[in-house]
Amino acid sequence: MRNIALLTFAAVAGALQAQQQIVLPDHHHLCESQTQIGNVGTTTWWRTTAGRFQVVYDASHFLGAGITGPITITKLRFRAEDAEINLGGQVYTGVTVELGSTSLSSTTMNTTTFASNRAPALPNTTTMGTLGTTSVTIAPALGTTPNNWVVEIDLLAIGSSITFDPNGAEPNLLVDITLPTAPANAAPLALVAMQDTVAGIPGVRGRGITTATVASATGTASTTPPVLGLEFVGPGGYTNVIPARNTYYGAGCGGSPSTFYQSYINGDVWDNGSGFTLLPDNAAAPNFYTVVAGAPAVDATKIGAAALSTADDAVVTHTLGWTFNYPGGSTTSVKPSTNGFVWLDAAMTASDFSPTILEWLGNTATTPQTARFAPYWHDLNGARNVALNPLAGLHAFTDTTGGPGNNVTYVTWLNVGEFNAVAQPGHTNWTFQVVMFEATGNVEFRYQTMPAFVGSSGTTVGGHAAIVGFTRGRIAGVNSVDPQSRDLSAEQPFNTSVEGSSGNLGIVPVATPFVGGAQYGGRLFAGQSLTWNAVNVPVGSTFGAQFVDFGGFTPGLQIPGITAPGCRISLTPNAILWETFLLTTPSTTGTVTLALAAGYNPGLLGVDLFAQFFVLDGLFGGPDLITASSNAVKHTIGLN
């Protein structure tokens, strides 16, 4: 009894110690791909049937995280695929879990026989820990990037925690899990895909085998094992696992754009739930919009007797019965897309599911794209929730009860879902609306239920997770000038412009050696070097300055005599002058480098660094010191 009491006390004491964390592989903290493109996940490991799998991860992942000696592994986790939203709820019973130390590595685990990988015999040796049995309930996937852990197994609670030493004779980790039966409640709730790995054996430094036949002695080899999360007691690792990421905020100025937008990258928080309203300067012949915060609630009664479309990637035509005027044109019909936007040009037919800035500004001469409103241009599917609501889908409805001159048109995305969500209803369920008023020319973007985080696992090269705003697109054969993405939730009110020849000043972080994706480049993690470029610098500018800061805020400050009208300071008074430029060019390349040392340095995790570019031509005369300012970027220093 004394030995049992001592063992119990040791387990409790271990649980009370500070728990550290690690993610395997060590470069999959943000996502499975450097570019965040085409991530699809897997249901090969945690599956809808019974099954068994083994995974080996090499010691290098532990050593790189500062684990220098023995640790006690207390929890094991599996992560849902990036951007996937899922209700979860599947229950696996009788799951057996064993962890072990092994001399097998990602390059020497060539056998597909389960018993051979566990064998203590030479030439490769494995020492398995204690087998534990538990029930596992799949937690809801929130849709973040990285996504949350949907499987968490408390190894202490089931008696299968192990002491593991990546510097020992058996320095690599083996995980062996058996799912004796299919999960309960597998239907109608579809199992979320788990995040697996890319980069091949040299990059992943892991390998696995899996089978759907529990009694089988062998499995199928895989070089894309699932991402694992571990919690442990001992030296090294991280108190909090914080991925390196960028967030754009604020607003640029200095140009004359007629369009405005906010572009979302994977993992951005959806923060426009209160909506906003576009007010034309002249209802009969608008020149520009004033955009103000807030709009009424969605009016779900202003829909048709049936949805115009529940198809994927569809465009439908709705005749207004009146003439709607907008900056640069007018129309008597609109063409809503099931992917969250409304064409104002009857010639447009595209229903592209992958938003890009090029298309937003007009695309190409061979495939021009023109004016549209986008309350939520995103990869959507109108049929996801028709089993819950037979009226779900895309609607367009004109209310004529106000009489001539007072028509109101409602375009409503009612109970639509994400394309990358599973086909079963309820996993994603969004409702939002565009309302256009004949009498005033006002336009309202209204939102009811929307995702907490914006993401798309199917994002293509150059694509964004979502775009919200208004554009004239291609104008007289030329693309609209780029106003740069702005923080619509905070940087209001603001005015668009009569379309001119130049866009707003923008900032572009550039990192080496890992550039990253087109929209998620410039991340700061150990070993990265960073500079900042500026685009759309006003022609004829004399003096440019790049500032960095450890603080920033929205809405940015507009100070008469300091900032030109429409320009904002999104940094604090403690900002550091990082680099200066004389006789700036429209595209300015930064040369002063910020470098983070390679290696294990948990002290920097979670530190935020802010950056913004200014043109200070007021130094040479003029009413305002800052004549143009870029939007700003917040870098969260973290893990790759």
Which residues sit in consecutive blocks of at least 5 with pLDDT less than 50? Answer: 1-16
Per DSSP E runs of 2 or more residues, the count of β-strands stands at: 43
**How many domains in all?**
3
**Strand percentage:** 35-45%
Mean pLDDT: 93
- Number of alpha- plus pi-helical segments: 5
The main β sheet shows up as:
8 strands, antiparallel
Describe it.
The protein has five helices and 43 strands. It has 640 residues and is mainly beta. Strands 18, 19, 24, 25, 26, 27, 28 and 33 form an eight-stranded antiparallel sheet that branches. Strands 2, 5, 6, 7, 11, 12 and 13 form a seven-stranded antiparallel sheet that branches. The chain starts with a helix and ends with a strand. The chain is globular, with a radius of gyration of 28 Å. The chain has three domains: 2-233, no CATH class; 266-287 and 294-472, no CATH class; 504-640, S-adenosyl-L-methionine-dependent methyltransferases, CATH 2.20.130.
Short description:
By secondary structure, the protein is mainly β. Helices cover 5% and strands 36% of the residues. The strands form 10 sheets. Strands 18, 19, 24, 25, 26, 27, 28 and 33 form an 8-stranded antiparallel beta sheet that branches.
